[in-house]
Design a protein that fits this description.
seven-stranded parallel beta sheet; 8 helices; 17% strand; globular; binds fructose -6-phosphate
Length: 249
């Protein structure tokens, strides 16, 4: 895994947006795997900035998102559909038909999973953007998720529900389930770009980079990917050994 230490969150976001922009310039119809959460917000802002300044266009780009809560419709302010449009898609020239986000609605969620797997097969990703949960999750693949998983429904852990509760207003509780891309699908991306910022991620970053490759830390599978890039600020990198940083290629 290649490790890039950023001075702060703004710097981290600039580096990540630069890597994504390079992917699109080299391949204007690139498929981007995208994430929600706080980690990529600065990256999306920077990409919008690049778009507004004519440095990149998304008109032939396709996107596939990692996950969505079960039971929230796309107008719900905490749904990942809403987040992606509000933070990113509504500000760039992407075609609506090129946007794919898993659907957590309806009576047959297993069918939704199968349909999303089909979409992923048709859209092999050039780059997959990821955040990491404080328990090492990627997408909503919580600890103990089999490495061999495809799109599936998950029961969210109390820790994840607690971490995500800051985004939910009074009276709105964090859903108990989500639909997520599986680990196999995540690892199929040609390049993986993981972002981690803040001291609260330091243990997860350590376990991902220097811990055993184990289903107890889903992100640890990324040690085996041949083009994974971690962009991390100093706080989130604070538990990494110097040797792990200098040995990263
Ligand atoms: C989001 C996602 C999650 C987040 C992770 C980190 O689509 O799949 O794995 O990336 O929970 O969230 P933040 O960035 O809010 O700390």
């Amino acid at each position: 895994m290649k490790i890039i230490i950023a001075d702060n969150y703004i710097h981290l976001s600039e580096i990540a947006a630069g890597i994504i922009t390079k992917t699109i310039i080299e391949k204007p119809d690139a498929v981007l795997g995208l994430a929600t959460g706080t980690s990529p917000i600065g990256t999306y802002k920077k990409l919008i900035d690049f778009y507004e300044n004519g440095l990149v266009s998304f008109k032939n780009v396709h996107t596939v998102n990692l996950d969505e809560y079960v039971g929230l419709n796309e107008k719900h302010a905490q749904s990942y559909h809403y987040f992606m449009h509000d933070i990113f898609f509504d500000h760039i020239d992407i075609k609506q038909k090129n946007i794919h986000i898993p659907c957590g609605l309806g009576d047959d969620l297993e069918k939704n999973c199968r349909e999303y797997n089909e979409i992923l097969l048709k859209h092999p990703r050039d780059i997959q953007l990821l955040g990491i949960g404080s328990n090492g999750h990627i997408g909503f693949n919580e600890p103990s998720t089999p490495f061999k998983s495809f799109t599936h429904i998950v029961e969210l852990t109390e820790r994840t529900r607690h971490d995500n509760s800051r985004l939910f207003g009074f009276g709105d509780s964090v859903p108990k389930q989500a639909i997520t891309m599986g680990i196999v699908s995540i690892c199929h991306a040609k390049k993986i770009l993981i972002l981690a910022s803040g001291a609260g991620k330091a243990d997860a970053v350590y376990n991902m980079v220097q811990g055993d490759v184990t289903e107890e830390c889903p992100a640890s599978i990324l040690q085996l990917h041949n083009d994974a890039v971690l962009v991390v600020d100093k706080e989130a990198a604070s538990k990494l050994d110097e040797s792990a940083i200098s040995q990263s290629d």
